[in-house]
Write a structure and sequence with these properties.
A five-stranded parallel sheet has the order 2-1-3-4-5, sandwiched between helices. α3 packs across α6. α4 links the parallel β3 and β4. It is an alpha/beta fold. It is 41% helix and 14% strand. The structure holds iron/sulfur cluster. Iron/sulfur cluster binds next to α3 and α5. Iron/sulfur cluster (SF4) binds next to α3 and α5.
Length: 169
Amino acid sequence: MIRILHQIFRTGVVTEPLPVEVEQQVVEIGRQLEECIRKRFRRSLVIRQVDAGSCNGCELEIHAMNNAIYNCERFGITFTASPRFADMLLVTGPVSVNMEVALKRTYHATPDPKIVVAVGDCGCNGGIFAESYASLGRIGNVIPVDACICGCPPTPVDLLRGILKVISA
Ligand code: SF4
């Protein structure tokens, strides 16, 4: 225990702060998100994230929205493990053949009115994987999609901005 405490004090804080302009963007987008979420969803926007076959690059950025730097919970965005509690499906792709049934079941298990957002170039248009014997391509080929957030992968700021655009439309 003492060794761990020594290590903590020796190491100090190593997390790098965001560049000032990015920090300002996050604060501004977050302020608008908070306002919009309060009006439209009362308390919080609950998201079920579905990896329908991505390379996991998009997932890393989605996870980053939840870390101590971006901390999307402070704006009212939370993630759930169950589609039954979700307002929004955030789906990364392309949709692998093996994930088709699971994605359709998740879509049907999410209560209406639901919002489906395709994330990443693969989710939006098939990206570098496109369609093949193992891939059904974009999310829109399998379930109805309301909006797309492009990028390979989109950054946490792109994701926050994209979510804001969808819910404020
Ligand atoms: S858009 Fe890029 S990061 Fe996202 S799943 Fe496709 S290849 Fe991976």
